[in-house]
Amino acid sequence: MSARDIRVAEAAALLGVSTDTVRRRAQAAGIEPSTTAGVTSYPAAAVARLATEQAAAAAAGHDQLGDLGPASARNRLRGIVTRVVRDGVMAQVEVQAGAFRVVSLISREAADELGLEEGSLVAATVKATNVGIEGITR
């Protein structure tokens, strides 16, 4: 393993997937692992390519969660709503997007219109300091 190699577990953490998924994606892309002292790793440049491909696929809406429509925001994190706290005017929406917990304050009216509840599939769009929530069609 060279200094420019990334261990499978590290690659999985960076990509937000399981180690098995890293191995499958690497094999499908023709990326050969190296094994030293029982530790499997991949070239850092290859892991970067996998991350770029994953991001491009997600941006194009090609995944198992449903298609997203076009939007100006490029930082879209797909996730699942874990908590919604509504009060008179506002709603606090907590989303788990891979390893990331995203919290957004939106109007209660918007939360009601989107039908947001625990278990709703959403995309959190991040632009500057604001996080918006949009529903995902299945």
Automatic annotation (TrEMBL):
Keywords: Molybdenum
Keyword Transferase: no
Superkingdom as given in the UniProt entry: Bacteria
Transmembrane stretches, start-end: none
Alphabetical list of SUPFAM superfamilies matching this protein: MOP-like (SSF50331)
InterPro entries: Mo/tungstate-bd_C_term_dom (IPR008995), Mop_domain (IPR004606), Transp-assoc_OB_typ1 (IPR005116)
Mop domain mapped to chain residues: 70-135
Keyword Zinc attributed: no
GO terms (BP aspect): molybdate ion transport
Pfam families: TOBE
Protein name per the record: MerR family transcriptional regulator
Lineage, opening ranks: Bacteria, Bacillati, Actinomycetota, Actinomycetes, Micrococcales
